[in-house]
Please model this.
Amino acid sequence: MTPTLVRHHRHHANAASAPTADAGARARDWAEIQERMLVPLYEAAYARLEVGPATRLLGLDCGSGLALLIAASRGARVTGVEADPDRVALARERLSGTEDTPDEPTRLYEGESAEVCDGAAPAYNLITAFEPLGCAAGDSEGLAAALTSAIPLAERGSAVVLVGWGPPERCATSSVLRVASRLTETLRATGGGGAGRGWRPALRDDLEDAASRAGLKPDGSGRVACPFGYADMDSAVRGLLSTGLFDAAVRATDPAQVEKELVEALHPHVRRDGTVWMSNVFRYLIARTP
Model:
């Protein structure tokens, strides 16, 4: 099986102020270190919705394709949309060995929303948005817009899965993510521009608010433990930086300062064997298309 890769060149409003780290290396760190942290959540959602051969799945912000691969292993026909071209390339590699049919090949689109998808493809009956809400101010508005673009491509009554961070007190990683917020405020306090959207704690109704904005009807929810575990401190720092949540902090200070403060924040989570372990709880909401 060879996934269909459709490229759409996008204008990056913050390109001039983006961190200078090699984008390909960051995407690889995401694929090899960080993306697997949410596997328990993917599997819980797929099991609850009985994802299988009858499923035609559209994955928004599909990253480097791990969630799509898990769905495909259950027999689902999968399509992914991802804004990062390096992650799209990795998803293409990852999905190259999965099975498809001539009328429903695995499709991977590079773009900000489902507007880049081929409207002639069969209608989807499952939409997933596994990028967790509760990371940056305004992320629920962005998700609502992405969902709005995807809903016309789905059958009526199709399931939509939204994901968010659990309460900060149940997510050990929250204390580490606060580094991004604090360092970003350094630039705001001095009147600097281009700071970007800093991290903020998850709110109880984040998922319901995003669903409501997109015209979706809630139809159940659940919580899943997703611990973040890393082989060593270097892997933890690389994995967290690959999320993009610290980009604004890098612009506000510098990469060395961000890494230094990340290491300090991670120290309480280092075990005797040198591994880094943080317990977290994530919440998912199942909603239905009108």
Q: What stands out?
A: Confidence is low (pLDDT under 50) at residues 4-18. DSSP finds ten helices and ten strands in the chain. The longest strand covers residues 154-165. Residues 174-189 form the longest helix (16 residues).
